[in-house]
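Q: Please design a sequence for this.
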């Protein structure tokens, strides 16, 4: 794993000194490694990024000087403390030996400090103090769960009874889920997943969505390459189910990329119903096109368009899968909590309102407008919809069609999934009708 740790150090160094997202940085560091080392690299880097506030706090307990650590020392300290406290899988002596060898190459003067630090961390880990760390109310929750204070405060207000459970869940592994397009072949797909030792299990909200223990064996598998499955969360289905009420005559998806909801939609309706898919980015629109081709789903008109300004042709049904904070998929993006800033939500809600206002003009009388996000933040969801309806009296709540589990119905009008309560990532969807 020595090469993996070196690549982890390089990736973390780039992330700490730039504005790049860690998933983009990791792409260039995976190519030099085998599958096992890639998984180790991803786990170590994403975990160190995600938990670095907690790691800094614990490291600070064993640092004599109040002066900040040099970035190189800090990064190796993150790596070691995260591996020893959160990862497992390697013998302690092997992990420490490899990390100290790395330190001797990069920052030799720090090797003694790091060696002593890691040995103290092992003692801390094996003590009652570590086992009670998350419940220690003397430590601020932002430190315990490794989140910025502004997010802790925000979600503490919105989820007064379950905010700690939410934060803890957002630090757990992201769900790994695939959708089986042809229900007649679901059993065959499940059998293949079992053969691959992926421990498959059906999602409780829809049997075509299958939980697996790993996605890695599927990335080059013919099931994915030939369009029999796609990698996506069950929450992508709910806006589509809302959209398909009241028999659409035509559908426009105005923020379609990368195409998860679009491909579900196209696969579930007759080919005779025209579908237009739009996105502001020509690059992302190409991704949509490739996904449609891989899944053998034709009959979609692709259009490069800015959803906040384009004059869309009139359709009976519109889907606005709006640009949002992405808090609902924070488990899949380890640095999102650190890259987002308090003013971002205000800027995003302004954009979301502009998009809804613009699209609303093109919805036919009696038509349906579905608004969805991949966040659970109220300001971007019900709070935003309430503002939109106050300014657009021709729209009203369309409600939730029969068949939705009651646990997913939010305020009697929308569908919302919460990572700590449901077998899905965080999402929101609501249907509005134009009268």
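A: Design:
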């Amino acid at each position: 794993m020595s090469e993996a740790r070196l690549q982890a150090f390089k990736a973390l160094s780039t992330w700490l000194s730039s504005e790049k997202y860690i998933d983009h940085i990791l792409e260039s560091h995976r190519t030099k490694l085998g599958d096992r080392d890639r998984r180790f690299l991803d786990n170590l880097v994403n975990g160190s990024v995600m938990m670095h506030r907690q790691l800094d706090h614990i490291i600070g307990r064993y640092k004599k000087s109040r002066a900040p650590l040099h970035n190189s020392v800090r990064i190796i300290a993150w790596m070691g403390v995260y591996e020893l406290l959160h990862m497992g899988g390697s013998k302690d002596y092997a992990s420490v030996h490899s990390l100290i060898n790395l330190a001797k190459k990069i920052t030799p003067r720090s090797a003694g400090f790091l060696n002593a630090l890691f040995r103290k961390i092992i003692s801390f880990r094996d003590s009652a103090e570590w086992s009670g760390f998350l419940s220690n109310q003397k430590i601020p929750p932002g430190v315990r769960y490794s989140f910025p204070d502004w997010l802790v405060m925000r979600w503490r207000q919105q989820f007064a009874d379950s905010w700690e459970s939410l934060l803890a869940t957002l630090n757990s592994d992201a769900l790994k889920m695939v959708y089986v397009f042809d229900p007649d072949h679901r059993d065959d797909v499940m059998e293949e997943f079992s053969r691959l030792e992926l421990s498959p299990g059906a999602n409780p909200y829809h049997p075509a969505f299958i939980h697996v223990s790993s996605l890695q064996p599927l990335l080059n598998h013919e099931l994915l390459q030939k369009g029999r499955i796609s990698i996506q969360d069950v929450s992508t289905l709910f806006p589509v189910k809302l959209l398909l009420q009241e028999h659409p005559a035509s559908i426009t998806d105005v923020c379609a990329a990368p195409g998860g909801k679009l491909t579900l939609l196209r696969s579930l309706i007759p080919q005779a119903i025209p579908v237009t898919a739009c996105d502001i980015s020509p690059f992302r629109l190409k991704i949509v096109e490739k996904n449609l081709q891989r899944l053998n789903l034709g009959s979609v008109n692709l259009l490069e368009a800015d959803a906040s300004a384009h004059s869309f042709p009139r359709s009976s049904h519109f889907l606005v899968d709006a640009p949002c904070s992405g808090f609902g998929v924070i488990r899949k993006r380890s640095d999102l909590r650190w890259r987002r800033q308090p003013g971002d939500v205000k800027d995003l809600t302004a954009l979301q309102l502009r998009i809804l206002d613009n699209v609303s003009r093109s919805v036919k009388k009696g038509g349906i407008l579905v608004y969805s996000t991949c966040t659970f933040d109220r300001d971007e969801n019900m709070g935003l919809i309430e503002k939109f309806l106050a300014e657009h009296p021709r729209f009203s709540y369309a409600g939730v069609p029969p068949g939705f589990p009651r646990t997913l119905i939010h305020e009697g009008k929308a569908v919302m999934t919460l990572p700590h309560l449901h077998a899905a990532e965080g999402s929101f969807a609501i249907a509005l009708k134009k009268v």
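Q: Thanks. Anything notable?
A: DSSP finds 19 helices and 13 strands in the chain. The chain has a mean pLDDT of 96.
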